[in-house]
Amino acid sequence: TYDYVIVGGGTAGNVLAARLSEDGKNSVLVLEAGGSNEGALVLEVPFLGPTATPNTVFDWNYTVTPQTNLDGRTFPYPRGRVLGGSSSVNYMVHHYGSSEDWDRLARLTGESSWSWNSIKRYIARHERFVPPADNHNTTGQYIPSIHSTTGVLPKSLPGWSNGIDQRIVATTAELASEFPFNEDITTGNVLGITWLQCAIGGGQRSSSATTYLKNAMGRTNLDVLINATVTKLVRTGMSGGRPCFKAVQFANGPQGASTVIRATKEVILSAGAIGTPQILQLSGIGDRAELTSNSIETILNLPSVGKNLSEHTLVPNSWLVQGSESLDNLRRDPAAASAALSEWQANKTGPFTDIGTNMFGFLRLPANASIFETTPDPASGPTAAHWEVLFSNFYASGSAAVPPPNPNGSYITAVAALISPTSRELFSICLHTAMNIIQGGTVKLASNNPFEAPHIDLGLLASEFDRFVLREAIRALKRFFCASPWTDYVISPVGGLAGDADAELDAYVRSIATTVFHPVGTASMSPAHVEWGVVDPHLRLKGAEGVRIVDASVFPFVPNAHTAGPTYLLAERAASLIRGY
Ligand code: FAD
Description:
With 581 residues, the protein is α/β, with parallel strands linked by helices. The chain is built from 14 helices and 26 strands. Strands 1, 2, 10, 11, 14, 15 and 26 form a seven-stranded mixed β-sheet that branches. Strands 7, 18, 19, 20, 21, 24 and 25 form a seven-stranded antiparallel β-sheet that branches. Strand 12 (237-239) and strand 13 (242-244) form a beta hairpin. Helix 1 runs parallel beside helix 14 (564-579). It binds flavin-adenine dinucleotide. Flavin-adenine dinucleotide is lined by residues 7-13, 31-34, 53, 78-81, 85-87, 89-94, 229-230, 270-273, 275, 279, 517-518, 551-552, 562-565, 567.
């Protein structure tokens, strides 16, 4: 037995492993389905990050179900299956969201300690801001006083200057009212275009495995077992009329023998927004009708398990450009890539220290947008965004894998992402409206076989609001590239981007949209007394004893952020809740 058994050595799981073992008083076991992250170049070199998935040994290799509102398309849906979890395979964008995301969480749960003012203290414990790989002068690119240089995870500004960066900055000056420059979104105000901060230190990826876990590995009170797939939580008795799950069952594969291990204090589920609801359902915790249809006995009827999945829909918009500023060549010319890799290996400098995206931003619909006549504003607050843009210095097609029209062309891609989706059930609950309740995405078992992938339906773009935002985002980006810094650079939009009528833009979006891989909400946090939701504001599984859930699945709303940063802060907060500091 151990005091704590942590299911999943991913982003959040490794924070807990480190924090719960650091005072030496508790014994901790981490069970991770994947293998070690060590020695894998694609997990270390930032520019190669996008090649770590899909369809690799580091990925769960999920595919989404046919998406009704995306022309019935399916596409790969990566999740890290390796120590570090998705922090080992993600694109390393690193920030914490809008202050209003956290304030809404505090309001929704009735627990003020989730508010931004309370949560932001964990930034100091978490991050270690370090100079960028190229050591450039970062004055005006971030606000040092709101960052920490003493936390665990090295992060930095971009380490390789992209030719387009200065054009973007110049456009924020020319079109300041629509695209203001924001010096640093870590203030909690995300609106505007800003320099990207990444989980990169010394030119290398920082994951929860290279930081929290690595620092803790020498401790005798911490054990980490890899290739250990948890197949269910095991009921160990009843406590106060509630089922107690203080043990887990795991195996090293479909043919492997099952082992049960007990936790004297708690089992902590950190298997991520897909793995966590899957394990709960396999354990008889979920929607009774769904469990029964998979021949699983219901121990705890919690209908919200696996529901309310919320995501950022992504539309990669590319323009053909001239000149030699784009990095397309680096992605298609083996000699150029090999030279960049050699430089990275020798000095940890050069384009491979970077993800090729140096600036991004968060933006709102105009206040007088017609959609607000029929839909209440779903943003987390008046300074939170409806959409996001990421400027990539090459052709990018998201996971729809559409090849560039000219394989030798040079491109710029402005990815638009929907930040405040309404295609979800909670939106209606929170606004106390009688609006149509749209279920949102779901994670449902395909069968009671723990080694079979669940059905993942993202339920994207089910509402007119969501489609409206993406149309307006695309139109705004077209205005962005009409500014004078681009006149000698941008040639023409690619493919269906050229259209402008609503129907044309909707068809274009349906044909190429995928996601940013930010699922949340499948084990949502909710006030202790309400029936919907899966965990209480202290992250304890509702209606049960002995289990806490600590990962991205507990966020009821997808934040104004790439979700790793918020997940790290959540895990830091969870550690302090559990240890009582
Ligand atoms: P994870 O980090 O996924 O951890 C879950 C862990 O549990 C994994 O290690 C998994 O193998 C393990 N596990 C699951 N099931 C079991 C089981 N049955 N038994 C044992 N172990 C199990 N976010 C950003 O902030 N910036 C980005 O640039 C970014 N880019 C992304 C790109 C990609 C391709 C992906 C996939 C994600 C990206 N994200 C990004 C999202 C972000 O990485 C995740 O939201 C975050 O890491 C989730 O953390 P987690 O702890 O909830 O889950």
